[in-house]
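Researcher: Next entry in the queue.
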Amino acid sequence: MKRTAYMSLGLLVLAGAGVALVMAPGRSDGDIPADVLSVFKKNCVRCHTGPKPPKGLSLIPAKIASAFEAPSAEVPETKLIVPGDPGASYLMKKVRREDGIAGKPMPPGKALAEEEIRILEAWISGLK
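Model: Structure for this entry, 128 residues:
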């Protein structure tokens, strides 16, 4: 019984890794710096997780890579994360609480600290 459970778990883990690679070739959660993961964990993962995250955006480490070059659910002509260009990234528009975004600014309630915004900006600027 235990062996079957471990084998099933192993297959699920492998399947999940395969999905992440298909969705974002060449990128993985291993590429995401600890300070960026910390910002997401502190401010975003509470809601953006599980089988049906808001707007389909999961920000758990294994899924973040799928947001690279993906269209925003709210403004499909704008990509969630544009590598090298935080100003064009919808994620940054939401966390900066810019005019013209659809829906609510993120995270709801208290805005990100300036340092957290700088961490995300630096990360996106450094992506290629």
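Model: Residues 1-29 have pLDDT under 50 and may be disordered.
Researcher: Noted, moving on.
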